[in-house]
Amino acid sequence: xxxxxxxxxxxxxxxxxxxxxxDVGKKETKExxxxxxLPQTLSRGWxxxxxxxxxxxxxxxxxxHSNKPLxxxxxxxxxxHSQALKKVFAExxxxxxxxxxxxxxxxxxxxxxxxxxPDGQYVPRILxxxxxxxxxxxxxxxxxxxLYAYEPSDISLLYSNMQKALKLLKTEL
Length: 173
What we know:
One of its GO terms (cellular component) is extracellular region. Keywords: Endoplasmic reticulum, Secreted, Signal. Residues 1-21 form the signal peptide. The chain is mainly alpha-helical. The protein is built from six helices and three strands. Strands 2-1-3 form a three-stranded mixed sheet, with helices on one face. The chain is elongated and about 65 Å long. The N and C termini lie far apart (65 Å). Mean pLDDT is 85; it is low at 24-35.
């Protein structure tokens, strides 16, 4: 086992030095500085090419200052409904393209903000918040007992709700 540890440590050091050596050769260009490449852990599989915010506070700040609506996805890693919705969301080209017009946040924990659980703390649920920091209670899914729930079969409804959130933005603000 001692030998295995040494080999593992050696391989780790080789991998790190290779990664560092690659970065040294890169020159800073306009392309690399324009869009920061975020670690893909923030997407949690909801769309790796999208830019996700890390916290609710950051998302609110960005929404307000960019005048873009905020889309918050509440989900859990071990929830089969969340996983099924995530798969459809990530594979849906139109949803992914439209999502670029939003400030995005996906949460695997509940926030203390009661506005984000207007009708309960269930997952998956998706809420839209406009740049005036108002939760859009008028943009809901099709379930009367869980207003902000979406199932994989509801992806086209989610897409039209995303369009609605953007349209409301233009007419109201």
